[in-house]
Design goal:
about 475 residues, alpha/beta, Aconitase, domain 3, 2 domains, 5-stranded parallel β-sheet, 17 helices
């Protein structure tokens, strides 16, 4: 019987099926961070339980970490307490811990893959919604709640109902200036923020086969923004080459045995999905959001739609535009911006900094723009310096900050002030997501870079064409 990639991985991890209930589902890798884990450990201790497989759990400090002066004590008492608690819990239970100052520290969904913890065919969870990032390797990865974090710590299993399967095919070749971030935002604009609710998505087609592993991570990261449980892409030679030699990847005979399994991880010809969608790469241009959810996205050269042309309630739509201080029919091109944020688990990898630098090299940051350039890990920082990108960044008037989640969310010092407009390479643009009253435009590193040097929302193709 022809089987989907999702079914192959899911079914192989079911410990027990509960009649008319969820599956008891085994978890291979469990990432924890300082925000969602403390209460889980309190629950663990109150029940007299311990961590059943500490070697399968990986603790990383990222949400509350400052992105300047990380060598100094953290000033915010709540953040300091959460960071300290993570370290103490990790030490008590024998869990690997990459805290501030550790060479492996960074955003959890960046450091997992770059250290070879994320593997094809694995099941991966974290108390963080963007755990779907790891699906880029052919893994089943999804976010869980605090009580589920406790469940995984104590049993290495989770109670989970099997989602339905969706496949999204994008075929053809992407045009100039169109990045994986644009592909994801385009799909979300078509699916809306609820279109994939109840599904696990497999991405397939020319565009994803051609895409780099880091690009695939960006797409899978954003899968949950259309309501899906997670997203995945079948592993291929690019995947295996990316993993090979990384610190925690299999070695020697273990690698050979792993490859025998990994090479089986693809959807069989003729396998059926519960629903399937097809998109043409030629229809995708550099994207930008204009509202208060990731589904409110358009091509950067397009005008904001009128309410009658948008699915959903008219009042809700107009409320969203009111918050953004935009109007129906407005052009996004030329809107003056205040902040640019390059970073997050969506776009904080080396390829994102290369893309940003391809635009800003030889140019200068606009005087009206405050820019936060935040690598996703210390390894990314090292690559930036090895490739000389740090010089391009500083010569253009930008400052490279230290790793962390930063301005993706208002949980650390990097907050966008009320009323200010930010072009952000992160994943969410909800009201107040980047700070109380802040306004967020989601975009790719290319759009962010072009806007940063022009001071207004800019189509990166105008600069790319000029560079040609």
């Amino acid at each position: 019987m022809a089987t989907t990639l999702f079914d192959k991985v899911w079914d192989s991890h079911v410990v027990r099926q509960v009649e008319d209930g969820p599956d008891v589902f085994f978890i291979d890798r469990h990432f924890i961070h300082e925000v969602t884990s403390p209460v889980a450990f309190i629950g663990l201790e109150s029940r007299g339980n311990s961590v059943v497989y500490p070697a399968r759990t990986f603790a990383v400090a990222d949400h509350n970490t400052p992105t300047i002066n990380q060598h100094l004590p953290v000033e915010d008492p709540l953040s300091a307490n959460q960071l300290d608690t993570l370290g103490k819990n990790a030490e008590k239970y024998g869990i690997s811990h990459w805290g501030l100052g550790d060479v492996n520290n960074g955003i959890v969904h960046v450091v997992g893959p770059e250290n070879g913890i994320t593997l094809p065919g694995a099941t991966i969870v974290c108390g963080d919604s963007h755990t779907s990032t790891h699906g880029a390797f052919g893994a089943i990865a999804f976010g869980i709640g605090t009580s589920e974090v406790e469940m995984v710590l104590s049993t290495q299993c989770i109670m989970q109902s099997k989602p339905k399967a969706m496949r999204i095919n994008v075929n053809g070749k992407l045009g100039l200036g169109v990045t994986p971030k644009d592909v994801a935002l385009y799909i979300i604009s078509k699916q809306t923020t609820s279109g994939a609710t109840g599904y696990f998505v497999e991405y397939a087609g020319d565009v994803f086969e051609d895409m780099t592993i880091e690009g695939r991570m960006t797409v899978c990261n954003l899968t949950i923004e259309m309501g899906a449980r997670g997203g995945m892409i079948a592993p291929d030679q690019k995947t295996f080459d990316y993993i090979a030699g990384r610190s925690q990847a299999p070695k020697g005979a273990d690698w050979d045995n792993a490859m025998k399994y990994w090479e089986t991880l693809s959807t069989d010809e003729g396998a059926e999905f519960d629903i399937e969608f097809n998109y043409d790469a030629a229809d995708i241009e550099p994207m930008i959001t204009y509202g208060t959810n990731p589904g409110m996205g358009i091509g950067v050269t397009k005008d904001i739609p009128n309410a009658e042309n948008v699915e959903g309630g008219v009042e809700t739509y107009k409320k969203s535009l009111g918050y953004m201080d935009f109007n129906e029919g407005d052009s996004m091109i030329g809107k003056e911006i205040d902040f640019v944020f390059l970073g997050s688990c969506t776009n904080g990898r080396i390829e994102d900094f290369r893309a940003f630098c391809s635009i800003v090299e030889g140019r200068q940051k606009a005087a009206n723009v405050t820019a936060w350039l935040v690598p996703g890990s210390h390894k990314v920082v090292d690559q930036i310096k090895e490739e000389g990108l740090d010089k391009i960044i500083t010569d253009a008037g930008f400052v490279l900050r230290e790793p962390g989640c930063s301005a993706c969310l208002a949980m650390n010092d990097d907050k966008i002030p009320a009323g200010k407009l930010s072009v952000s390479t992160s994943n969410r643009n909800f009201e107040g997501r980047q700070g109380p009253g802040s306004r967020t435009l989601l975009a790719s590193p290319l759009v962010a870079a072009a806007s940063a040097v022009e001071g207004v929302v800019t189509d990166p193709r105008t600069i790319l064409n000029a560079n040609a």
